[in-house]
Design goal:
globular; mainly alpha; 0% strand; Growth Hormone, Chain: A
Length: 434
């Protein structure tokens, strides 16, 4: 028993959470690449609102779709390799943007496809999220997963907000090419750090060392409660057969997909609708993005205390209020900021609550569930900006306010889905535990 109680895995829960969170932070920085520069590209490329929204949203395309296969990969190979692959692709995207701004000042309409490709590559880093969810979950006992996952996602989500503040200042003082060179250098350094210091959960380390895995002994020695099925696509298939997975996906489409969408949409909203400077627009975007990210941590704590379902309900009520305020704000900047804050509060808490429920409902397929919920949920970040752009195209300047009707409708639908989830939850749980 003493021999079994020795954990031979390298790293610790705290270290694993730290490195996985930093990896997500680095990967999510890719979505920030387009928020500050879309207004400049709109001017130099003469983009209409739809193509502007498409460019702003393109990182969310790969960032969402790749979450499904890469999240499922964790159940087969652990989290480190998928994270490294995604970050290398994201670095290539940042490198492409850096090269374009270095060679062409300003970029011309003919370069639009290149920036789309750059955004698609940058978005690969966003997919780190669905890899990190099972990676962290396999390290932590279930009773502490809500807090651990909220810290991971909340702090990782701070990347867009921080860069929304930093990049405009760098661009104004150093210019676009040098700003992106510095950003690229930082990501390359982080890649090296992750390679040397990140470690997979004990189960995967034991398997790599050729140690026979006794789940009871591994639980006693290393505290690992969850164990992967080992079959990546079986994990996705099994998770997809649970109807709750799809309701959670719908919730995440609104909360996290909406978060990505607004992170890239708000800089344009503030500059085009209210005529603010790039720096002011970046600061207001950071207010939303950083608040959403930090509130996600508190959302995890709240979910552990009162339950994920109750937290989801309260969150979408708040999102509904925020969307309504932005619709009626029109030319009132104060009312628009208030609406933005309400959206940050509601989405931040909802993001945490949804992933509190993922390991609860699908403990044997956490990787597959995280891939579906995180992937298809994040797809909202790609779909929503072009739709909001169409409101602007049809209604002119008023469309910037009317576009938030999208969030009002989505939040009301989410409340309806919550009623279904809440009605059937207790019965399903009772069946699952027998």
């Amino acid at each position: 028993m003493n021999e079994e109680a020795v954990c031979y895995a390298q790293s610790s829960r705290g270290a694993a959470l730290t490195w996985t969170t930093l990896a997500f932070f680095a990967g999510f920085a890719g979505v920030s690449a387009f928020g500050p520069i879309v207004p400049k590209l709109k001017e130099s490329m003469a983009l209409d609102p739809f193509f502007m929204g498409l460019l702003a949203a393109c990182p969310a395309l790969t960032g969402s779709l790749l979450r499904i296969p890469f999240g499922a990969m964790v159940d087969r190979m652990g989290g480190k390799k998928p994270i490294m692959i995604l970050l290398v692709l994201a670095v290539a995207g940042i490198g492409c943007i850096t090269l374009m701004f270095g060679l062409f000042r300003p970029p011309q309409p003919v370069h639009y496809p290149v920036f789309l490709l750059s955004g698609i590559l940058c978005g690969c880093g966003i997919a780190v999220f669905s890899v990190g969810i099972p990676t962290v979950s396999y390290w932590y006992p279930q009773k502490r997963q809500g807090t651990a996952l909220a810290i991971y996602a909340g702090l990782g989500n701070m990347a867009p907000g921080m860069f929304a503040v930093i990049l405009p200042y760098l661009v104004v003082s150093l210019g676009l090419p040098i700003s992106y060179v510095l950003w690229l250098a930082m990501l390359v350094i982080l890649l090296g750090v992750f390679w040397f210091f990140m470690h997979d959960a004990p189960y995967f380390q034991y398997r790599q060392m050729g140690i026979e895995i006794d789940k009871d002994a591994l639980l006693i020695a290393c505290g690992e409660e969850l164990f992967p099925s080992g079959a990546a696509f079986e994990s996705v298939k099994k998770a997809g057969s649970d109807w709750r997975t799809w309701i959670l996906t719908a919730f995440y489409f609104v909360s996290f997909g909406g978060f990505i969408a607004l992170t890239v949409w708000f800089p344009t909203y503030w500059t085009e609708h209210f005529g603010t400077s790039l720096v002011v627009a970046g600061s207001l975007t950071a207010l939303y993005s950083l608040a959403t990210s930090l509130l996600r941590v508190f959302g995890g704590l709240t979910s552990d205390r009162i339950g994920g379902e109750k937290t989801v309900f309260i969150s979408f009520v708040i999102v509904t209020v925020g969307a309504f305020l932005l619709i009626i704000a029109s030319e009132s900047m104060g009312l628009a900021v208030a609406g933005e804050v309400f959206l940050a509060l509601g989405m931040g808490f909802a993001n945490a609550a949804v992933f509190k429920l993922v390991p609860k409902y699908t403990p044997e397929t956490v990787g597959g569930s995280a891939g579906i919920v995180g992937g298809l949920g994040a797809f909202g970040g790609f779909v929503i900006p072009p739709v909001m752009g169409l409101f602007v195209k049809v209604s002119g300047s008023d469309g910037y306010s009317l576009g938030f009707t999208v969030f009002l409708a989505l939040s009301l639908v989410s409340l309806g889905l919550f009623a279904i989830l809440n009605h059937y939850a207790s019965g399903h749980e009772a069946t699952a535990t027998t």
